């Protein structure tokens, strides 16, 4: 007959293994946090799908054990997220308060541990990331009523920053909703795959001044199965009657189709630039 002391010893050994694995988990969380800081991505607190996948692999006939297991997994993930947020403490995020008073709410809701840094105009907030004063910038991308902001489109085309996250603000009583882009110095070329979340990407480009040039470009995009959400033309600074194009599309560009499309576009477009790919939150 096994004595209670023997069970206690077995539990102690399991606890040691769990502690070692938890330490290993936090080390990985540290690396993820460093990557998110570099790319300007918020910490995820939506653990439901991850827990469901793990529970599918657990073989237990006892429903009580399954319930406690779910609670345990949620606690582990919440602690891990809290650890990542602690590591982001000191991260500086620029925003423009004078032109968009809602930006500070977006910053605090998505990066609660970060230090918000206020600027008077979009360009100053953007360049603060380029020159290293801030880690990332949160600027309005589009509004459901007024569309894109021209000066921010110009910053995307002319600047060096990338978009790895797009965040949505709550809809107001008039059905007005804004989406915000998180700009950082690094483009995420290997985003985490999640087939259940809508993906998007943004490119800017110029085309030759000849008949059918723009149509040929759009045909390539459609031929690879991407749905265009927005297309805007903007004047090129210092070049009369010359324009660049801003396009946002639905779909995952980090696929063979996406790579083939970009390669085909580069043969037609004089100035093609992938601004970013992201999960549309």
Automatic annotation (TrEMBL):
Q: What GO MF terms are annotated?
A: chorismate mutase activity; prephenate dehydratase activity
Keywords of the record: Amino-acid biosynthesis, Aromatic amino acid biosynthesis, Isomerase, Lyase, Phenylalanine biosynthesis
- InterPro entries per UniProt: ACT-like_dom_sf, ACT_dom, Chor_mutase/pphenate_deHydtase, Chorismate_II_sf, CM_dom_sf, Preph_deHydtase
A single GO CC term for this protein reads: cytoplasm
Q: Short name of one Pfam family for this protein?
A: PDT
**Coiled-coil zones:** none
Could you mention a single GO BP entry for this protein? Answer: chorismate metabolic process
Q: What is this protein called?
A: Prephenate dehydratase
Species name: Eubacterium ruminantium
């Amino acid at each position: 007959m096994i004595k209670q002391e023997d069970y206690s010893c077995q539990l102690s050994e399991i606890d040691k293994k769990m502690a070692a694995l938890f330490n290993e988990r936090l080390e990985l969380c540290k690396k993820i946090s460093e990557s998110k800081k570099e790319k300007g991505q918020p910490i995820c607190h939506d653990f439901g799908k991850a827990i469901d996948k793990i529970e599918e692999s657990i073989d237990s006939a006892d429903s009580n054990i399954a319930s406690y297991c779910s609670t345990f997994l949620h606690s582990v993930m919440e602690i891990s997220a809290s650890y990542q947020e602690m590591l982001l403490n000191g991260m500086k995020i620029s925003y423009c308060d004078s032109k968009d008073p809602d930006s500070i709410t977006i910053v605090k809701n998505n990066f609660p541990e970060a230090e918000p840094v206020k600027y008077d105009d979009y360009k100053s907030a953007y360049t603060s990331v380029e020159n290293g004063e801030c880690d990332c910038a949160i600027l309005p991308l589009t509004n459901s009523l007024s569309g894109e902001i021209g000066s921010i489109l110009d910053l995307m085309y002319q600047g060096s920053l990338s978009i790895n996250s797009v965040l949505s603000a709550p809809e107001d009583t008039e059905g007005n909703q804004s989406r915000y882009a998180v700009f950082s110095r690094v483009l995420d070329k290997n985003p985490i795959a999640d087939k259940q979340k809508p993906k998007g990407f943004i490119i800017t480009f110029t085309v030759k001044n000849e008949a059918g040039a723009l149509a040929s470009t759009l045909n390539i995009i459609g031929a690879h199965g991407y749905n265009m959400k927005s297309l805007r033309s903007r004047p090129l600074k210092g070049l009369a009657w010359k324009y660049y194009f801003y396009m946002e599309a639905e779909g995952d560009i980090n696929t063979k189709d996406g790579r083939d499309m970009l390669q085909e576009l580069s043969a037609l477009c004089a100035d093609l630039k992938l601004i970013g790919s992201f999960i549309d939150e």
